[in-house]
C-alpha cells in the first residue's frame, strides 16, 4: 500500500505523525512510504533521516494526496485540504468530528474513509499525558508576575507558602499535571466523579494530596483559596452548563491562573476560548487564562516520538490486513472510524450534529463476526440510524 505522511499546517502545530523509525518499520513490512518535504523538520527530524529510513520525499501536500492510498497527520483536516479528499482514500488524524461539522461535511461529500485518531488509543493518547504535564508547566509560567500572575512560587520559599492548585479531572491529562505539580511541591487537590479513581490516586501519593468529588458546588467552595486551576475534564459537547462560570472567577484573587487543557468548545469553563502559542493568555475577572488548544505541540520532538510509537501498531494493522480486518481485530480502530465512503460512522458526531449514522460493523459487514471489544469513546448516544436497503 502507498502510505503518505503529511506536514501539519495548523497554526502552532509542530508535531509529525511518524518519525523515521516508524517509516523503517512500515517499509520493512512491504509498503511504500511518501513523506512530504520538511514534515518532521520542526520536531527535529530531517528529510535525510526519512530518506535513510526508506521514504520517498515529495515536495508538496498535493503530491502526497494524489499518490497515496492511506495518509496520516496529527491534527484536523484544514479547509484548504478539503478539495484533496477523494473517494475511497483513507485518512488518519485527530479529526475531532463532533465539534467540526464543516470538516465532517467535507469528509462525507468526498466519500473518503476517515479515522479519528483521538478515539483510537487503547491505553490513552500520549498527547493527553503531554498536555497534562506541559500544561502544568505553562500554568506555572502564567503565574509569574511578568506574565500577569500573582507571582507565587509553586513549592513555596522559606517563610512563603506553596501554591494551592486544583486539578479538575483525574484521567490521563489530570494525572500528568498532578505528577509534575506534586513533584514541584504544590498543595494539590484533585476532583473527579470517580470515587474509585480518587481513592487510587490518594493511595498512590500516600494521601499527601487532597481529593474531592467534582461538582460545581465543591469547586466554588475551594476557588477563593486556589491559586491555579487546571481543567482536565472532557466535557460532554451536548451540555450547555459550566463547571466554572464567569461569576465564580470573581471569588479568586487577582492574578490567579486558569489553564484550560481540555479546551473543548463548548467546554466546562464559560470564560474559555481557544488561543495559540504566539498569544496564549488573556484575563477575565482578574484571572489569567491560558487556553492554548494544542499544548503538546510545544514539545514537538518528545510528543512526536511518543505518539508515533503508540500509533505504529494501528497503522501497520490497517496497512498489512486492510481496514475491515483491522476493525475486526482492534475495537479501538473500529470505534474511531468516522466516515466510510459517504456514510457517517461516528456515534458522538451523530448525537451532537443530528446527522444519521451507521455502526462501523454494519457498514463493513462484520457484525456477525467475533469482534475485539472496546468501550464507547464518549457518553453521547444516538439512535438516528441509517438503514441499509
Describe the structure.
The mean pLDDT is 96. The protein has 389 residues and is of the alpha/beta class. α1 runs parallel beside α2 (47-53) and α5 (126-143) packs across α6. The protein has two domains: 2-119 and 299-363, NAD(P)-binding Rossmann-like Domain (Rossmann fold, 3-Layer(aba) Sandwich), CATH 3.40.50.720; 127-293, Rossmann fold. 34% of the residues lie in helices and 15% in strands.
N-to-C series of helices and strands: EHEHEHEEHEHEHEHEHEHEEEHHEEHH
Strand-residue proportion: 15-25%
The CATH homology group name of the largest domain: NAD(P)-binding Rossmann-like Domain
CATH topology of the largest domain: Rossmann fold
Could you estimate the helical fraction of the residues in percent?
A: 25-40%
Radius of gyration: 22 Å
Q: Tell me the overall shape.
A: globular
Tell me the major beta sheet. 8 strands, mixed
Strand elements, count: 15
Name of the top-level CATH class of the largest domain: Alpha Beta
Low-confidence runs (pLDDT<50, min 5 residues)?
A: none
How many domain modules?
A: 2
Strand order of the largest sheet: 3-2-1-4-5-6-14-15
Number of DSSP helices?
13
- The CATH architecture designation of the largest domain is 3-Layer(aba) Sandwich
Helix- and strand-based class?
alpha/beta
C-alpha termini separation: 32 Å
Average pLDDT, to the nearest integer? 96
Amino acid at each position: 500500500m502507498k502510505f503518505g505522511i503529511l506536514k501539519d499546517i495548523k497554526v502552532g502545530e509542530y508535531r509529525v505523525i511518524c518519525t523515521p523509525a516508524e517509516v523503517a518499520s512500515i517499509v520493512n513490512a512491504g509498503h511504500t512510504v511518501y513523506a512530504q518535504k520538511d514534515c518532521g523538520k520542526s520536531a527535529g527530524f530531517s528529510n535525510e533521516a526519512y530518506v535513510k529510513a526508506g521514504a520517498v520525499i515529495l515536495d508538496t501536500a498535493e503530491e502526497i494526496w494524489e499518490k497515496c492510498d492511506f495518509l496520516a497527520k496529527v491534527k484536523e483536516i484544514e479547509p484548504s485540504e478539503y478539495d484533496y479528499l477523494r473517494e475511497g482514500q483513507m485518512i488518519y488524524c485527530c479529526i475531532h468530528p463532533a465539534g467540526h461539522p464543516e470538516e465532517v461535511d467535507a469528509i462525507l461529500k468526498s466519500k473518503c474513509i476517515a479515522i479519528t485518531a483521538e478515539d483510537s488509543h487503547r491505553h490513552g493518547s500520549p498527547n493527553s499525558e503531554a498536555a497534562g504535564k506541559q500544561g502544568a508547566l505553562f500554568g506555572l509560567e502564567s503565574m509569574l508576575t511578568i506574565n500577569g500572575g500573582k507571582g507565587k512560587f509553586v513549592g513555596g520559599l522559606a517563610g512563603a507558602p506553596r501554591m494551592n492548585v486544583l486539578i479538575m479531572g483525574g484521567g490521563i491529562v489530570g494525572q500528568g499535571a498532578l505528577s509534575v505539580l506534586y513533584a514541584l511541591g504544590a498543595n494539590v487537590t484533585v476532583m473527579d466523579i470517580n470515587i474509585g479513581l480518587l481513592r487510587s490516586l490518594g493511595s498512590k501519593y500516600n494521601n499527601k494530596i487532597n481529593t474531592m468529588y467534582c461538582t460545581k458546588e465543591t469547586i466554588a467552595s475551594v476557588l477563593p483559596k486556589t491559586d491555579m486551576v487546571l481543567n482536565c475534564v472532557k466535557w460532554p459537547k451536548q451540555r450547555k452548563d459550566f463547571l466554572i462560570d464567569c461569576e465564580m472567577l470573581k471569588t479568586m484573587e487577582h492574578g490567579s491562573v486558569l489553564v484550560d487543557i481540555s479546551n473543548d468548545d463548548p467546554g466546562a469553563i464559560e470564560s474559555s476560548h481557544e488561543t495559540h502559542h504566539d498569544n496564549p493568555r488573556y484575563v477575565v475577572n482578574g484571572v489569567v487564562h491560558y487556553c492554548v488548544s494544542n499544548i503538546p505541540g510545544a514539545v514537538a520532538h518528545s510528543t512526536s516520538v511518543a505518539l508515533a510509537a503508540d500509533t505504529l501498531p494501528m497503522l501497520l494493522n490497517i496497512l498489512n490486513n486492510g481496514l475491515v480486518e483491522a476493525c475486526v481485530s482492534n475495537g479501538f480502530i473500529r470505534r474511531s472510524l468516522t466516515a466510510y465512503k459517504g456514510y457517517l460512522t461516528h456515534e458522538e458526531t451523530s448525537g451532537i450534529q443530528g446527522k444519521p449514522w451507521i455502526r462501523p460493523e454494519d457498514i463493513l459487514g462484520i457484525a456477525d463476526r467475533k469482534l475485539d471489544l472496546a468501550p464507547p469513546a464518549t457518553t453521547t448516544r444516538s439512535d438516528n440510524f441509517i438503514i441499509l436497503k
